[in-house]
Amino acid sequence: QPLHTLRSAEKELLPGFHQFEWQPALKNVSSSWDVGIIDGLSGWTSSVDDVPAETIGRRFRYDVALVSALKDLEEDIMDGLRERGLDDSACTSGFTVVIKESCDGMGDVSEKHGSGPAVPEKAVRFSFTIMSIYIRLDEEEDAVTIFREPKPNSELSCRPLCLMFVDESDHETLTGILGPVVAERKAMLESRLILTIGGMQRSFRFFFRGTGYDEKMVRELEGLEASGSTYVCTLCDSTRAEASENMVLHSITRSHSENLERYEIWRTNPYSESVDELRDRVKGVSAKPFMETQPTLD
Question: Mind listing the pLDDT tens digit for each residue in 33-51?
Fold first, then answer.
């Protein structure tokens, strides 16, 4: 057989290697197949051991990590289809996967003794959990849930995607490292994953919910002032005084795109206002938001 055929066959025997494709192909994402772990800022390396000393982030490519997670759940997916009385040969498309994203600081990780490389004191971890998988066979029919994560808040169901040496309040560095993750996620929303599960090719769509962020991280991702701000809510424009008078009637008024517009006003100050007037106009948006967070209970 020609060499490239043998290479492909060899690759499939590697642990963690899965053949998959996206239709249409993902925009702004490397087409390299055998991607191992990525140096957060400076491109691709093939193995964990090639870390240059100044690396401050390591991560998996998002779609490769999702494929690996789905293959880990292969038996659960097939069991789910059987339990619902579905003929698995008829279920080749219409799968939807709901992903919970989480990102949080890991606190002080500095090396107190020993001769390791000098690293910043803080680390941040970005991870995801497959919350549920459901299938809709026909447009009219209700979706049938074939997998639901039994322990959605457990450390065991939470898969690390990116580890960074960075303080979670360092907005610029976080943006630099997680920006490509956001670009990959955005590309996946507009495409379908074709992956072999149970011996047949099936197509999956993904929904992402940022419900694993605490308030500090939501403020960071959305470019808001920190928690000591007068504008206390991450979902609306209430000030502390307004919120203390009215604990019930709140509506969700903030959106990612509106925060972007307000950042532009903050940056350009088109009305030549004083700092206080400008701050009152943008309601606590002080940096460029870079990750869309779904409005959930704050």
Answer: 445 566 655 455 555 455 5
Share of the chain above pLDDT 70, in %: 82
Listed by start position, the domains of the chain span 3-213, 222-282
String of DSSP letters for 190-220: TSEEEEEETTEEEEEEEEEEEEEE-HHHHHH
What is residue 285's DSSP assignment?
B
pLDDT tens per residue, range 66-85: 999 999 999 999 999 999 99
- pTM of the entire structure? 0.83
* Cα dihedral across residues 230, 231, 233, 238: positive or negative: positive
First and final C-alpha spacing in the chain:
59
CB-CB contact of 135 with 88 (8 Å): no
φ, ψ of residue 260 in degrees (nearest 5):
-65, -45
Mean model confidence pLDDT for the chain: 84
Weakest-pLDDT range from 54-63, 188-197, 274-283: 54-63
Contact 78, 147 (CB under 8 A): no
The pair of structure tokens assigned to 1 is 């057989």
Q: Provide the strand spans (E) within 64-111.
A: 95-108
3-state secondary structure labels for all residues of 218-266? HHHHCCECCCCCCECCCCCCCEHHHHHHCCCCCCCCCCHHHHHHHHHHH
The one-letter amino acid at 199:
G
Q: Which residue has the higher pLDDT, 30 or 285?
A: 285
Residue 24 in tokens: 């249409």
Q: What's the rounded Cα separation, in Å, for the pair 54 and 133?
A: 39
